[in-house]
Input
Amino acid sequence: MLVEKITTDPAEAPPVTRGAIVRMRRAQWRVVDIRPFDGCAIVTLAGLAPPHAGLERRVLTPFDTIEPIERTRRARIVKAGAWTRACRALVAGDTPPASLRSAARARIDLLAHQLEPALAIVRGLGCRVLLADEVGLGKTIQAGLIASELRERGAIDRLLVLAPAGLREQWVAELHGRFAIEATLVDAHSLRRIASTLPIDLNPWTTLSAAVASIDYVKRPEVLPLAARCLWDLIVVDEAHASAADSDRRAAVHALSARASYVLLLTATPHNGDERAFESLCAIGSIGDERDDPLLVFRRTRHDAGLAARRRVHALRVRSSPDEQRVHRALARYSQAVRAERGDACLALAVLHKRALSSAWALAESIDRRLAMLAAPAGADAGEQLTLPMFDVNGDFTPEDDAPAWPEGVGLADADRERRLLGPIAGAARAAAARESKAAALNRLLRRIGESVVVFTEYRDTLQHLRALLQRPSIALHGGLTREERACALNAFIHRPGSVLLATDAAGEGLNLHHSCRTVINLELPWNPMRLEQRIGRVDRIGQAHTVHAFHLIADGAGELRILRRLRERIDAAKAAIGAPDPLGIVEVAIDEL
Amino acid sequence: MNSDLGAAAVAEVERLTAARTLMRDGDTLALTRLETEGPWIGIARSKLKRRLGGRRLEIWRVGYEDASGGLVESRLVVLAIHERERSPERLALRESLALSERLAEPVAESIATPVARAFQASEIRAFQASEIQAVIDSATVEWRDAVARAVASFASARLARETAIAASAARVRSAPIQTGLFDRREEHAHAALEEGHRSVSEALAERKASAQRAAALVATAPKLLLVIAGAGRT
Output
């Protein structure tokens, strides 16, 4: 990566080396760095005199002419101020070996646990790191520190951050604001714009020294080959647990990481109780055996980091309305019929029960779609339409909170019988949806709390329905928003104290909301304990000045208590494996007490 | 991770906190100028001169450069040189820093004195004797060992991964194709794939070479950066 020197003019001009004083565009500069780029050289210059004093510029030679200035070192008497400034800078920059060179300049609070991963890298303990600290302990800062440290040491030129679509701006802002790393947000639009300024055969990815892109955009078959042709020196995978299982995401992330000099995997929830998924996560970017290519795992809790735990978790039991109980009974009858006929459909049926526990409205939507499919003429393609990124060229949207397709393997051979069983469910669900008991409980809770609150749910349709039932104005944040809409929603929430943010898991992941809010309400229990921790982690982070409150609304008599028990088992398994935190209720309160 | 790392991180926080207290806007620019111009001399009078007690304070930097001439590791050595005997004595960095922090005002008073300007660079060079070199060498023995260890461990981890990546890329072979008589599309696609493999292999080889170059550091001669001396010594 480093080049020893560049010759500015073949006709006798002396070569330019790092540290040399040069003239460029009629100003004097000091050469900070020289790197080859596609037959040319990128030269980083530091300005020596006004108006460029203290500024850094990157230029491409030979397109910009750089003339070396011969200067002999000569002692001279200087004013006291200049002497003291130079002395201060010298002493401040004096760094012992195997210490961090860039951290002093970074705009971060210095916390020991955040320096450990960067120290491990500079001490040569490994090149792949799994940062699996508890939510809110500053994984982004730790990744930024590693990136800036490796840059400072000349060990990396190209940095690629792969993050969920909703976190791209946050990454760009953090890298710029805290570490002075100018990263480009890459999507179809920006890539097209870059490509339009380049020769036709030049890969636009190669022009980016630091890029932030969504995993779902990069994994696309038309994007991945170009991104992979560019050799990345450091790859940061944010929310890496989402790329853990066998999937396109995992394949894309691994393909890029396996050629990167350094790989950082970031997740607060590395283990969801599934050992295979955890192993798959740990193998991202691995190219040898554990001895040749060790994975450095950092898993610190608030206790380890010396931060007091100030979280109170409340499990609130909500009594189901008669209509809702009718929905659950009807759904149980349908499930029984399917199981009697198919036997092995338990897992598929669970999707319908999840929808029912989210909201009666969500279940009604799913049942209506099934009834429409059953009503379609025989021979019509009853399968789901393939989702193509036709309306999401930039990878802005997050489809995970969309209503799931009707589960494969759920259905009866006799369509009339199935219609007869589904009809009552749909009717009862529509009736129950008008007065959802959890929405009523939420209204009561919000009246009590009276400050900014984040309400999480899994599905977008539940969120939209809930928004209509709430008595307080609310802001919606879901996976169907564009970048601009999303930024608008977050801005409104942050700047309006006392507001209610309704968010889906998919849209809320990775957000930093701890400066505006301290309360999280979970409308339903997610079946994955990692999601629960992710939700609470939006407000329970370093910098949160108040005690955090998390409320789980648990439907009584609807099977949600069974989920609670199952979640408890999975959390215990994850706790035993990696010391995962416990996001479940420790204080149980009936909703009537509110 | 291990407790060594935890202890090192705590020490690092202390060091960085101390460094931050010294950082001011504009200091980096002053340093850049110092590095390009040559040693800067501050002239001490009255209180500071008394404090120096007939000694001259010199701040030297020893370092290691990489193949591109960039300073990658450096250490400051502060010497107090007795003007008469010319025998250097090593000061702790903290001591010199405390001194330099108190310099501004008295130096500003003395700098206006024309006689101070008689202090010439040639005299500074005259003191760069083997005695000073010997003191600097002895002051940096441990540091040089630590640099060698740190550079070796950082570079070996990097090189091990680069070597493994290059080996893994070399194993990738595109499947053989049957060229069409008229339809050359598959042939072109295959050629593009091969070209892609080739360019990636070249880039990987260059990255590995770069990691090897980065591991080979060259020690630089000690460089005198700052001097503070009493006024009127000439």
Summary: The CA atoms of residues 473 and 500 of chain A lie 7 Å apart. The longest strand of chain A covers residues 27-37. Residues 1-5, 7-14 of chain A have pLDDT under 50 and may be disordered.
